[in-house]
Amino acid sequence: MNTISDNKRIAKNTIFLYFRMLLIMVVTLYTSRVYLKVLGETDFGIYNIVGGIIVMMSFISSSMSISIQRFLNFEMGKNNQENVRRVFSSSLIIYAAFSLCILMVGETLGLWFLNTQMNIPSDRMYAANWVYHFTLIGLIANLFRIPYNAIITANERMNFYAYFSVLETFLKLGIVFILLAWGDVDKLVLLSILSAIVFIIITFCYKIYCNHHFISSRFQAIWDKDIMKKLLSFSGWSLLGSAANMGGNQGNNIILNIFCGVGVNAAVGVATQLISGINQLVSNFQMAFTPQLIKLYASDNREEFMQLVFRSSRFSYYLLLVISIPAMLCMEFILDIWLDEVPQYTVDFCRLILIYSLLDAISAPLWLSVQAAGKIRNYQILMSVLIALNLPLSYWALKEGMSPLSVWVIRVIINAITYFTRIVYLKGLIGFPAWQYIKDVICTVSVVTVLSIPIPYMLNGKFDGWLNLGIVTIVSVLITLAMVFLGGLRKDEKKYIYQMIKSKIGR
Known about the structure:
Low-confidence stretches: none
Number of domains: 1
Number of helices: 18
Radius of gyration: 23 Å
Strand content: under 5%
Distance between the termini: 28 Å
Helix content: over 70%
Shape: globular
Mean pLDDT: 80
Order of helices and strands: HHHHHHHHHHHHHHHHHH
Largest sheet: none
């Protein structure tokens, strides 16, 4: 493989995805603000917790997305287009079956759980049921998008996401304008209906694009038992990890609802949406390098594979760190200018979720490496046991009368444990150079982090309002970037960045 061309492709794809990220971030921040204002804290909390119930039922299908992505990239790494087509068509058949199962479970067991177990005000239960039904429809539409999303990513057509994000952005903004303009209607119900329509439209757009650009995405009634067995076997073990992660995300929200009510769910919802916008930085970069990671492993190019794991771990962390430091320091002011009324605990939830996200960012290339290797049974069992501890520990903490914040403190601690466990596991699985990783990645990013914090921390609060935010942000970003360049990059990485900047200036 041509390393230079691969790096250029990753950089190009990252730029396209950053454009997408900026759009999504702006729209997410604006729409979340409007939703909270229009719906109120109670209805906003209902919207988030009901959506969480639906998402919990999708963990079976979400585990399949990992499997599809892996096998598509693997076959493309071997340049086997016929198998690419078979993997795609088989995945659509499997998703159709999964969607039917989710619909049946959702309209029976899920509906019973909503109406009998959730802490929702009785006068809003009618609206909550409507939200539930339309969110379920939106989920099924979104599930059928996953195979198309996988083949777009496998072909590294990241410009597609940038272009179609414009459409999705305008559609979501349209929902906001309709909510603001339509007075005599239940806004919570209307939001759920319009959101489901947007999901359906975007899914059809994905289908049309893929059918036009990729022959392998045109569905054929292929019943390939061997491929289906491989997909289901791989996803079967991924299922454990998906279930554990879903329990950590949505299970904890349900526990918070039972013990603390929809007000705390609103705080978590606001925090999650704010941080999700920031996390787009990392997820876009990871989306750009994931196909290369799997293809390098498939082609048995171990040296380049290890280099990409090390590089992507550090870069993922740095991308989030640059924004995280000023965001953590100025979080209270950011939320005050963003929202008319900030729900209790939101500031601290945001800070805890940011710490959690930093750990996720640096560890993502590790679990992607396990997926690339394909030997995931023991890994998923181990990770699932660790991650599943979130639920009983959170339940115990709230039962003992601890703060709702304890739920996310527990999640951060367990995420740190799973991170180091991944390093040890990879060492045994593929001969991963654990000590070199600790030295080149963990020690390096730790030094950069420690050196980047003191000056912005001391400056924070010395000024008022916007001036404080501006000064802290500018100083923090400049210092963090300086620390990254001076001590956080290898010589070849510095040389590459220098040459890239020089070439751009020279134009």
